[in-house]
Each structure stands twice: as structure tokens, then as C-alpha cells.
Design goal:
By secondary structure, the protein is of the alpha/beta class. The chain contains two helices and eight strands.
Length: 123
């Protein structure tokens, strides 16, 4: 891991929170802290991603969340679509990244490219 945490501003906190809570649940990522217009999420008690409505929203971000296996990637994709995300790449291998790269992509409510990926070979 090279980053400790990352965060950005969103247009509508309530919509983004509902999206991220549902989309990231299959990855074991939950809200760990929140306040008026912001939330921090992570797993194992470590907040590593925050989002909030605290200023002008950024645009054009790509965030990739680590999955422990391919089933989590598929669960993320399904949950993100159910939460209102727009498909940007169904779960599958991406051999142009590397032999075992398995990922799925969605656009979040602000249009950011959100991904879940796994680097493990198929079982």
C-alpha cells in the first residue's frame, strides 16, 4: 500500500453515501466515521476513503478498491449497479494489465470510474 487514505467532494452526500454503502459492502468496506455531510469508510477498523459535500466536487477520478477474490468483484459490480451505478466494464479478466487481473468498473453518481479488482488467479 502506498497511500494512507484518499478523499474527495461529491455533489450530493446523501446519494453518494447510499451508493458507496451498498456498492462497497461486498468488499467488507463499511462506514467507520461520519459527520455532517461527510463519511469515512474502510475495513478492519482502518478508514482509508472519505467523501463529503464540503466544497466543490472533483471530476474524472478513478478509484480501485481491493477485492480478496473474484466473487467479491462480482458482488461489488452487482451491488453498485443495484445502487444506481452505471456499468463501465463487467466483471472479467483484464490480461492487458496482467495475467490474473480480474476487475469490474462502474460510474458512481458523480461519474467517477469506480473499480473493484483482484490479482489472484482463478481458483
Amino acid at each position: 500500500m502506498i497511500l494512507d487514505h484518499i478523499g474527495y467532494n461529491v455533489r450530493d452526500f446523501a446519494i453518494s453515501k447510499a451508493f458507496y454503502v451498498q456498492a462497497l459492502a461486498p468488499l467488507g468496506i463499511v462506514v467507520l466515521a461520519q459527520g455532517d455531510g461527510w463519511a469515512m469508510v474502510g475495513r478492519d477498523g482502518k478508514p482509508q476513503f472519505w467523501f463529503g459535500q464540503l466544497g466543490a466536487p472533483q471530476t474524472g477520478l478513478h478509484l480501485a478498491f481491493a477485492a480478496t477474490d473474484r466473487e467479491q468483484v462480482r458482488g461489488f459490480h452487482a451491488a453498485a449497479l443495484a445502487a444506481g451505478g452505471k456499468d463501465n466494464g463487467a466483471p472479467g479478466t483484464r490480461p492487458h494489465y496482467h495475467e490474473h487481473y480480474y476487475g469490474a468498473f462502474v460510474h458512481d453518481p458523480d461519474g467517477h470510474n469506480i473499480e473493484a479488482c483482484c490479482h489472484e488467479p482463478a481458483p
